[in-house]
């Protein structure tokens, strides 16, 4: 899965059109960034490359780029 494909999956988790998220968006500005989206992100990171992400790690992320780094998306 490419970075763009990962972002498209993340778009789906937060009910946005594919191609909306690019990386610098602040999570606090995404109304759809809910606990369900967090759970979905944990599953997505695991599916992407087996990265085990804990909710406490996600809580330290401020932007979509932070999430990508946490999931080790290149």
Secondary structure elements and their pairing?
Layout lengths: L2 H11 L21 H15 L5 H4 L5 H7 L4
Structure write-up:
The protein contains four helices and no strands. Helix 1 packs antiparallel against helix 2. The radius of gyration is 11 Å and the shape is globular.
In short:
This protein is mainly α and 74 residues long. The protein is built from 4 helices and no strands.
Estimated radius of gyration:
11 Å
Shape: globular
Strand tally, please?
A: 0
List the total number of helices. 4
Q: Which structural class do you get from the secondary structure elements?
A: mainly alpha
Q: Average pLDDT value? A: 95
Helical amount among residues, as a percent range?
Answer: 40-55%
Instruction: Tell me the β content.
Output: under 5%
Distance between the termini: 10 Å
- H/E element sequence: HHHH
List keywords for this structure.
about 50% helix, 4 helices, mainly alpha, about 70 residues
């Amino acid at each position: 899965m490419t970075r763009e494909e990962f972002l498209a999956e993340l778009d789906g988790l937060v009910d946005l059109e594919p191609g909306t998220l690019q990386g610098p968006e602040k999570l606090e500005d995404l109304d759809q960034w809910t606990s369900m989206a967090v759970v979905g992100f944990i599953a997505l990171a695991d599916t992407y490359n087996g990265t085990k992400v804990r909710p406490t790690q996600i809580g330290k992320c401020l932007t979509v780029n932070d999430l990508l780094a946490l999931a080790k998306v290149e």
